[in-house]
Amino acid sequence: MAKLKITLVKSPIACQPKQRKTVEALGLKKLHHSVEMEDSPATRGAIAKVSHLLKVEEL
Description:
single chain, 59 residues, alpha+beta, CATH 3.30.1390.20, 2 helices, 3 strands
């Protein structure tokens, strides 16, 4: 299965609490922090909810 590199490029401070929790659930803690995750429908759904805060690359 493919992997995704997800990077937080914009702060979630001004976002709704639900979106902040989604960023936390993806494992992103600080600005420009990156995580590698499996490409799954659940991951894609979370990315879609906060896509304006993230940069996503396929590995």
